[in-house]
Amino acid sequence: MSGYFEIIDSPDGGFRATLRGPSGELLAVSEAFPTKRQAAAGISLIREVAGTGLIRDMSSGHRGEPFRRRLRTLRALSAHESLRRKRLHAELAVKDRIALAAHTHRTGSRR
After folding, report:
1. Is residue 61 situated within a structural domain?
2. pLDDT score, position 91
3. Which domain holds residue 103?
4. Which residues make Cβ contacts (< 8 Å) with residue 12, sequence separation at least 6?
5. What counts of helices (H) and strands (E) characterise the chain?
6. Which of 24, 57, 66, 84 has the most CB atoms less than 10 A away?
């Protein structure tokens, strides 16, 4: 399951958008928006920026330069994990087909 956005009531009036991770953990909270429509527009903007935005290191000792080496590493790890998952799903599909074929051969039916 992937993460998701929520539109919630803001304690100081209006609405806020929250971003939750796959397990429901809170990842981000937006500024307050006066209307739900504006909160939804804020979510659309977050989706656009998150897919293409650079990571800037604003921690002490850095000047806000792009964090490119780390980003390349994260992308490589993400691609590797994606490939690993595809292989795992393919292996499970093959095992399921083998089990179904064995069951069909034993019983003469698919159930």
Report:
1. no
2. 75
3. 67-111
4. 32
5. 2, 3
6. 57
State if pTM tops 0.85: no
Residue matched to tokens 């009036």: 13
What is the model's pLDDT at position 37?
96
Cα–Cα distance measured from residue 93 to residue 99, given in angstroms and rounded to the nearest whole number: 10
How many domains would you assign to the chain?
Answer: 2
Residue 52 or 45, more confident: 45
Residue 74 and residue 106 in one domain: yes
Question: Do 77 and 42 share a structural domain?
Answer: no
Q: Which residue has the higher pLDDT, 50 or 4?
A: 4
Gap between the Cα atoms of 27 and 32, Å rounded: 16
